[in-house]
Amino acid sequence: MTKFIKPLKLKPKLLGQKQEQDKPPVNQTENAGLSGAAWKDEVLGQDLEANLRQIKAILNKCSDVIYREFIFAQNEAIRLALIYTDGLVDKAQISEQIMRALALEVPQVVPGLELTKAQALEFIKQRGLCIHQVKESNRLQDLILAILSGDTVLLVDGHATAIINGARGFEARAISEPEAEPTVRGPREAFVESLGVNTSLIRRKIKSPNLKIETLRLGEVSGTDVAIIYVEGIVNDKLVTEVKSRLERIKIDAILESGYIEELIEDGPWSPFPTVNHTEKPDRAAAMLLEGRAVILVDGTPFVLTVPMLFFESLQASEDYYERFLFTSAIRLVRFLAMVTSLVLPGLYISLVSFNHELLPTTLLLSIAAQREAVPYPVLIEVLAMEFAFEVLREAGIRLPRPIGQAVSIVGALVVGEAAVQAGMVAPATVIVVALTGISSFVVAYSTSITFRLLRFILIILSGTLGLVGLITGVAMIGIHLCTLRSFGVPYLSPLVPTTAVDLKDTFFRAPWWAMFSRPRLAVRQGQKKQAQDLKPTPPETGP
Amino acid sequence: MEQGKIDSNQAFLLMLSTVLPTAILTVPDVAVKFAKQDAWISLVIATLVAMAIAVLIVNLSLRFPEKTLFVYPEEILGKVSGKIVIGLYVWWYLQLGSATIREFSFFLVTVSMPDTPMIVFSIIIVVVSAYAVYNGLEVLSRFNQLFIPVTGLLVIVFLLSTKDMKLTRLLPLFDTNMSSVLKGAVTPTMWLAEIVTIGVIIPYLNKPKEAYRVVVLATLTNGFLLTASVLEALLIFAPHLTADWLYPIYNAVRVVSIAHIVERLESVILVLWLIGGFVKLGVFYYAAVLGSAQWLGLKDYRSLVVPLGVILVALSYLLYGNNIVDLLDYFAEAWVPFDLLVLEVGIPLALLSIALIRGKGGKKG
Question: Complex ipTM above 0.85?
Answer without folding.
Answer: yes
